[in-house]
Amino acid sequence: MIHMDPQERRQLQLERLQSTLNRACRNVRFHQERFEAAGRDPAEIQRLEDLQRIGFTYRRDLGEHYPYGLFAVPLRDIVRIHTASGTTLKPAVSGYTRQDLLVWREIVARALEAGGVSPADILQITLDPGLSNWGRDYKEGAEAVGASVIPYTPLSLEKQVMVLRDYRTSVLVTTPASAGQLAMHLHLTGVQPALLGLKRLILVGEPVAAGLRAELEARLQVETWQHYGLSEVPGPAIGFECSRHAGLHINEDHFLPEIVDPASGEVLPEGETGELVLTTLTTRAFPLIRFRTGDRARFIPGACDCGVTLRRIAWLAERTDEMLSIRGVKVSPDQVRATIQAALGRLPGNCRFFRRVQDARHWLEVWIGIDDGLFSDEIKELQRLIQTVGSRLEEGLGVPVTVRILEGRSFAADPGDPESDRG
């Protein structure tokens, strides 16, 4: 598939798209209504370009049809159910049939093999709880390749290093933020990377800047590969780097990619930067049609020297929506506000939150302003409020959270961290 002639692949995409649209419109009321609103019938989609006549699917649609409203097969055919952080208190729920899991295993295995992973490797998975679903996908993909796998398990940095050293891990699947923390920890504790067996980093969750990438490779003495994925679509390795490291190949036999203008929604010409939109082509349980990812990207023109004919994208750091990316986990400002409101019984008038980056640590920091509804002379009561909000957010988002209750000038002050994203 990865070396297929592009014209043959377009025909395969069209056939798979037509099958997906027919199944989705037959079994999912949401998709039926979208086609009706556009005055279209799935049978009218005779070219890939015809899909542009249909509207988009947004993250909010996943929450509004919680939990099973977007499933295209009976629940008895679902063998795995995943949840991801949504845009409200309701998570985004996706399901898999047995066939879906086999396809996803193939997708991840393909991406790992492109990064040089082989049966000779020992692969370790280190991700935050918000990406724990991906840990299972990488485990199964690596097993398909024949590599030995140390599955995803939450560990302290000290324990992670112990496993890396003692188990002779050669491939580490992690986020750029976690890799940065690992490099700093090794430096502070005096552990030489040469003492480890680590050879490759598979970086997932968020794009990695060229400067950070070069720094990680130098400090950890490894080669890095980037994978692109989405929890909602649902999973990792939708796009992957080959040995040329010249953009990410999209698994076009399983996903139809588009680049659209974030404001108008119009499809952009080849090479222009816009928002990546994805349509699933082989997902049976949870088909998504023209899903707006919020990720900024552009198609890279021309064929790749590696011989893989799958189209490539450049994945850019800026987003087209208000989502914050924290350690690879997408955090919705609306979900943060809704969680705070649920924890306190009200949404304080003064409430700010930021993505914080300091000493290779990434976390969500929340500022809540003191008002009459929150004021208390009891330090213990304020500490309880902080703990309640923090634990609710960490549970719902799967990322580290720090909560601060401030008043007056302290609340009005600028956070002062140039690496902070603000919500």
Task: Please provide a written account of the structure.
- Strands 4-3-5-6-7-8-9-13-12-11-10 form an eleven-stranded mixed sheet. Strands 18-17-16-19 form a four-stranded mixed sheet.
- 44% of the residues are buried.
- The model has no long low-confidence stretch (mean pLDDT 92).
- Strand 14 (324-326) and strand 15 form a beta hairpin.
- With 423 residues, the protein is an alpha/beta fold.
- Helix content is 33%, strand content 25%.
- The protein starts with 5 loop residues before the first helix and ends with a strand.
- It has two domains: 1-321, Rossmann fold (3-Layer(aba) Sandwich), CATH 3.40.50; 332-422, ANL, C-terminal domain (GMP Synthetase, Chain A, domain 3).
- Helix 4 (98-114) packs across helix 5 (132-145) and helix 9 (333-344) crosses helix 10.
Q: What's the architecture of the largest domain in CATH terms?
A: 3-Layer(aba) Sandwich
Shape descriptor reads globular
Strand order of the largest sheet: 4-3-5-6-7-8-9-13-12-11-10
The domain tally reads 2
Counting helices, strands and paired strands, the structural category is alpha/beta
Percent helix:
25-40%
Supply the number of helical segments. Answer: 11
H-E order:
HHHEEHEHEHEHEHEEEEEEEEEHEEHEHE
For this structure, the CATH topology of the largest domain is Rossmann fold
